[in-house]
Design goal:
single chain, about 280 residues, alpha/beta, Rossmann fold, Hypothetical Protein, Haloacid Dehalogenase-like Hydrolase, Chain: A, domain 2, 2 domains, 8-stranded mixed β-sheet, 4-stranded antiparallel β-sheet
């Protein structure tokens, strides 16, 4: 790994704890890596605007790929941006409404949105502090926080551009069925479909994913593909593993995700496994 110049880190399940925060220890190691000359990037399914709430004060990286490759930002400069069409957004929302699948629409120019007409049933889905069944604690708390603080309840979806739509259900069969339908209709709808847990789905612009985002980011910096290392844990990291030269999965990743990577961390995200792996490989 002597040729590594760029490190790409997933967030949820990788550098985020289940409380949806990056630890001070991970932030410190990332800072030390950058001081040592490595470029460190985030490659996340999260929207760009919510990242600041997940990291310590003064947390810095060299660039951020957000919404699964949809947006690339370097020091507040937009390097690339790919939007869903309004027609696609409206059709996906219609399907979610029809099946009572929770959804959040993410415009580039405004906070995430849900139609006012769906407020009653979307809110009812998220009653209780304890997640039902096998739904992850971090995903459940993120949804409740979104409803309370981050969702813009709108009468119409009439924004100019969209980074993604997030879809969620506590019913595993229901979200799996909708995700499969969207995958089948990707070409027709001109979308890309991914997921970061078994209880969600995310739709982005056509032929856009974390892998394409990394490609665009390294081209901006003049870094070669063989100089990249990626760390992730979930299905939306598959494209990142396919593109990255050195690939590392988290100990807490499912076996089928670990099988895609060359190495697996010895510690979980709750134990700062990604940062400590990097410290061991590049700083000691």
């Amino acid at each position: 790994m002597n040729d590594v110049k760029a490190i790409f880190l997933d967030m949820d399940g990788t550098i985020l704890h289940k409380n949806n925060l990056v630890s001070e220890q991970s932030a410190s190691i990332i800072s030390t890596l950058r001081e040592a000359g490595y470029k460190v990037f985030l490659a996340t399914g999260r929207s760009h605007d919510e990242i600041k709430y997940l990291v310590p004060n003064n947390f810095e990286v060299d660039g951020i790929i957000s919404s699964n490759g949809t947006l690339g930002v370097v020091h507040d400069e937009i390097i690339f941006q790919h939007s869903l069409s309004l027609n696609s957004v409206n059709e996906i929302v219609r399907r979610a409404q029809e099946q009572h699948i929770y959804y959040e629409v993410f415009p580039f120019e405004a906070q995430r949105a849900i139609l006012k007409e769906d407020r009653e049933w979307t809110t009812a889905m998220l009653q209780g502090d304890v997640p039902p069944g096998n739904v992850g604690e971090s995903e459940w708390s993120s949804r409740k926080d979104a409803l309370e603080h981050k969702v813009n309840w709108v009468s119409n979806i009439d924004f100019n551009s969209f980074s993604k739509i997030y879809l969620f259900a506590t019913d595993y069969d229901a979200i799996t069925q909708l995700r499969a339908q969207l995958v089948e209709d990707q070409d027709e709808l001109q979308i890309t479909v991914s997921n970061s847990s078994r209880y969600n789905a995310e739709t982005m612009a056509y032929n856009v994913d974390k892998g394409t985002g990394i490609k665009e980011m390294i081209e901006h910096f003049g870094i070669q593909q063989h100089e990249t290392l990626v760390i992730g844990d979930s299905d939306n990291d598959r494209a990142m593993f396919a593109f990255g030269h050195y690939t590392v999965a988290m100990k807490n990743a499912r076996p089928e995700i670990q099988a895609l990577a060359q190495e697996v961390t010895s510690l979980t995200n709750e134990e700062d496994g990604a940062a400590l792996y990097l410290q061991d490989k590049f700083l000691i």
